[in-house]
Amino acid sequence: xxSCWLSRLYWALSKPTGRTKPLIWGSLSRSLVLSSQRxxxxxxxxxxxxxTCGELRSSHLGQEVTLCGWIQYRRQNIFxxxxxxxxxxxxxxxxxxxxxxxxxxLCEAPVExxxxxxxxxISRPPGQENPKMPxxxxxxxxxxxxxxxxxxxxxxxxxxxxxxxxxxRLQYRYLDLRSSxxxxxxxxxSQMVMKMREYLCNLHGFVDVETPTLFKRTPGxxxxxxxxxxxxxxxxxxxxxxxxxxxxxxxxxxxxxxxVARCYRDEGSRPxxxxxxxxxxxxxxxxxxxxxxSLIEGLVQYSWPNDKDPVVxxxxxxxxxxxxxxxxxxxxDTRFGMKIVDISDVFRNTEVRFLQDxxxxxxxxxxxxxIPEGAKYxxxxxxxxxxxxxxxxxxxxxxxxxxxASRNWNSPVGKLIMEEQGLQxxxxxxxxxxxxxxxxxxxxxxxxxxxxxxxxxxADLLEAGGVVLRDPALFxxxxxxxxxxxxxKEENPKELESAHHPFTAPHPSDxxxxxxxxxxxxxxxxxxxxxxxxxxxxxxxxxxxxLQRYILATILKEDVKLLSHLLQALDCGAPPHGGIALGxxxxxxxITGAPSIRDVIAFPKSFRGHDLMSNAPDSxxxxxxxxxxxxxxxxxxxxxxxxxLNHPCHPES
Length: 653
Ligand code: ASP
Prior knowledge:
By secondary structure, this protein is of the alpha+beta class. 31% of the residues lie in helices and 20% in strands. It has helices spanning 5-12, 26-37, 100-108, 166-171, 173-176, 180-203, 243-251, 289-303, 320-327, 353-360, 374-377, 380-394, 412-429, 444-464, 545-555, 564-570, 584-592, 622-625, 638-645, and strands at residues 64-75, 79-84, 87-92, 114-123, 138-149, 207-208, 226-228, 235-237, 256-264, 276-285, 317-319, 341-342, 364-371, 398-402, 436-443, 477-481, 486-488, 496-498, 525-530, 533-540, 577-583. The strands form 5 sheets. Strands 6-9-10-21-20-19-16-11 form an 8-stranded mixed sheet, sandwiched between helices. The chain has a 5-stranded mixed barrel with strand order 1-2-3-5-4. The two termini are 25 Å apart. Bound molecules: aspartic acid. Residues 241, 243, 537-539, 579-581 line the site of aspartic acid (ASP). Keywords: Ligase.
């Protein structure tokens, strides 16, 4: 319930500022330091209450207080529990004739009506204290009460234990926001952003600059939302990030920029994405990769809630190639092992046909993961479904191998492997008696990526069986570095696209390869990963116009005219620079342990990108479209269109 989460929140974020480096202007620096040292916020200034409901304790006994809050519930018309963002407090409804009007107001107002009460803080009679309530030792003896507004409609009660569908929560978001969880998430978010601002601006001299949201189409990257303009055939685009602006700010000499930036990407339905989301966007001049990494480690450490285990810096680092080989992904969850092991050498002389076939091809490998106690926790149907999904979704064969040959039920290949290559497998994968090995063969990247997915699926299965693999209190940060500068395009692998974005600089030792084997060039791109989710990414940028033009035009085959402003700017004495952006929603989601990023955003869109409360996006009458010179071309089969927007396994939310 509301317990003492607010005090936990304030405590969580109230560590001293630590280093306070003076800024250039003495007086500015003094006032900033002073304001950042104000630690205990005044929660009842300027308003019609003296205290918050949740703050009252025995230390307030005898005080005359005025509270404003919502009626949580009423018992026998004698007690009323009042709630505000800070907690619950019990109010005693007066029973004597002289207070009949107060009694009437408090007994007749429906639950969730908003009232103002004034009275005295008294002790609860002995034996009636409620140790489960932080305010459980006291109650309010009411003198006056005012109904501020009555709650006439209540689609669901504001009780944490009541389960509601997400669609209903989103439709009545303003009510859902009253829940203690949403209050906690949004207040923690606000406080962490405050600490980040403090760290960046007050301790390190960053400048908070707002950049436009009405922009133009940019090459590469995600799909952009388009905004019609009144000029025929001309459109703005919503920026997928302030990337170009922040680089232009460097050219403009604002050499330490940051912004809590809204970004827009029209990426369709993806479970952990939102069409609009927030980044902590950063750019610096005269910096290298380690400079950015240290800045971010300090930022995370400084803004980290105190009620969580402290963050240890520096964060470990892994190359892209190591991540792919060991975890089958560029965002490894390093909270648990089960790493992918190359066992090709064990099978050089195998009799097993599909392994032989795989190894005879270029890039052919045999790879495996060992699931600890898999024989105990994975049921036969789990293994069958793993094999089926590998075959259906990835066109790959997966073979389960148990240590005891007798366990390799209906799998003559598994038995054969255990008999012939068993000892080597046991040694390489450190197999224990109850473990199961999942083995696959094929082209290196495909095999790793499949095992990377199976590693996570098996972790879910083990945890469903009660094994604690990923400690919820553990936050495992990781830098992934040395990405390739380009990757083959999915739809046409002969062409290249940027692995990060086209402004990323090549690794200094690989620049010569740009002109001969661009696919081999490593980049100065770094990603920050937390518990297997990418929470940030950035790069050192190209500041040489010629190199930027070559990459855009010759390698990426982009229309350089679209970026002529940036190319010109680079030619005007652009300093070397680099930056990063942290995905604030995802970071908050991981810190709060929320099931979805929607739970850390006040007014999120549904899974399909709809605002279920206001019904956006909405249609516009044709006459209102006229000034924009656009017309709707209605799909011939609206049902097919609808189902192409729908995701099979997700309802609206
Ligand atoms: N703008 C980049 C992004 O949104 C981040 C960066 O390179 O700084 O991914």
